[in-house]
Amino acid sequence: MKQSFKFARHIVVMVMVGLLLGTGLSPATAAINSPVRMVPQNFSALADTVSPAVVHIRVEKTVKHRGPAMGPFGGNPFGHRFGPERRPDFKQPGLGSGFIIDRDGYIVTNNHVVDGADTIKVILKDETEYPAKVIGRDPVTDIALIKIEAKGNLSTVALGSSDDLKVGEWVTAIGSPFGLQYTVTAGIVSAKGRAIGSGPYDDFIQTDASINPGNSGGPLINMKGEVVGINTMIIAGGQGIGFAIPIDMAKGIVTQLKTSGEVTRGWLGVTIQDLKGDLADYYGLKGKTGVLVASVVPGDPADQAGIKPKDVITGVNGQAVKTSRDLTSLAANLGVGDKAKVTILRNGESKTMEVQIGKRPLTMASVSGNGQKEKEGEYGFSVTDVTPELARRYNLEDTAGVMVVGVAPKSKADAAGIQQGDLIIEINHQNVATVKDFKNLIDQYKKADGINLLVKRMNAGLMVINLA
Known about the structure:
Blueprint: H1 2-22, H2 27-33, H3 44-50, E1 54-63, E2 90-100, E3 106-109, H4 111-114, E4 119-123, E5 129-138, E6 143-148, E7 158-159, E8 170-175, E9 183-194, E10 204-207, E11 219-221, E12 226-234, E13 242-246, H5 247-260, E14 266-267, E15 270-274, H6 277-282, E16 291-296, H7 301-305, E17 312-316, E18 319-320, H8 324-332, E19 339-346, E20 349-356, E21 358-359, E22 381-385, H9 388-393, E23 402-407, H10 412-416, E24 423-427, E25 430-431, H11 435-445, E26 451-457, E27 461-467
Parallel strand pairs: 7-12
Antiparallel strand pairs: 1-2, 1-4, 2-3, 3-6, 4-5, 5-6, 8-9, 8-11, 9-10, 10-13, 11-12, 12-13, 14-21, 15-16, 16-17, 17-18, 17-19, 19-20, 22-23, 23-24, 24-25, 24-26, 26-27
């Protein structure tokens, strides 16, 4: 019986190879081009085609020490005879991956790979090295665009469609995990549309293709050799669980970064939450879809259009809104200044409001000395009031203070060590409750010897940062 089975299997394999040879295609090429997504014979053809467009990225960042060197019992181990001793700053290396999207040298990677880097070096597969400069970064989606000035023709990779991906489809990750350059791993699409609490635009591709530190910014490839995602994160302690940013989301962001160096998103000016369970019952909307308006930002677009708290938004420009992610995505893709038709339910009655879209405030901006928001101001960072949405995202129990939502590279704020997500609760011992308080105090102390910020940082506690 066993011999018959082996003979039959041998005949099947011979027939399959014969069919492939009859088409003039190698088994590897046929696996890539086949419309039937079968288990590939091997991934060699795919790796050979794509890997020349994948790059290894090395960065160097300055890590600043702000406290004095401490002895075993606290304080300066040598006393205060010569004043407090400060530990020296040091250079911290980092690594990541990226991929070349055109022959001019533009490279897509993750924002966290290059954020705060003093130097960026790109290494091609032929081991040629080039310095790179940052063209633009989008911390909200963790996407960055960098550029090298290379000699000769650069290999590039084609961008595919993440929307066309199917769960269970084979994909390949190429990158430099732990600095091991041009590592190729394979797996399947485990899930799509994953929201893992990293930000308002969570929509990750989950894959079991091995992803490790150093893969960040590298491409997730389909069996046609097209980029369908940007490998970006893993779950601590998890195995076989990696996440990639869908390339369809990234395309528009990369275009904006290439054109203007930043990303502009539409803004309604509301805080929202999903309408489900007891909340839907409470408002008598069981079985209906939409998102509940928890609050409206005074003076912002929704407020000017007449939208009120407890309204339920059910659609934008004729497109249905079922979840908070739907509304966030639809609003972000609207142009600033455009007029949108927003459909709401109020007291069971459907209404359509015309809203002139504003600019989302969670972008890299800055607070200048005169307290106004403007690009590349005196200090180089921006803050916002702590909304219910931000409190949920950062698991904040105490919402007093204002949150840092953007820090410009090489600005005074960056040099001082201010980070996105910091909660500023005092300035020179004065309480900060709102953005207005913050602006007034910054303006008040701008001519003083220094501005001391009492900051609460996630997983680090309270710290004082001197904004020189």
